[in-house]
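Below is how a single chain appears once it has passed through the pipeline. First comes the sequence as given, then the structure the pipeline wrote out for it. We keep one example in the README because the format questions we get most often are answered faster by looking than by reading.
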Amino acid sequence: LTLTLTLTLTLDLTLTLISKSIYSAHTESDEAYALFSGTSMATPAVAGFVATLLARDSNMSAAHVADRLLN
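Resulting structure:
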């Protein structure tokens, strides 16, 4: 008896960014942290989101990536 099981997963990505009061490393020392705000605090999340999109579909065009980000 041979049993074959096929599992299909669907992943829906939604991006929500917070760029206010992000606790992050600070340049004062190797152990310093501070609260920062601004678009640069959201940049790592956007880069990760784009990387995930491209990992799922490496043929995705830049226009499609931009569309996913903005819509």
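The chain has two helices and two strands.

See the next section for the split statistics.
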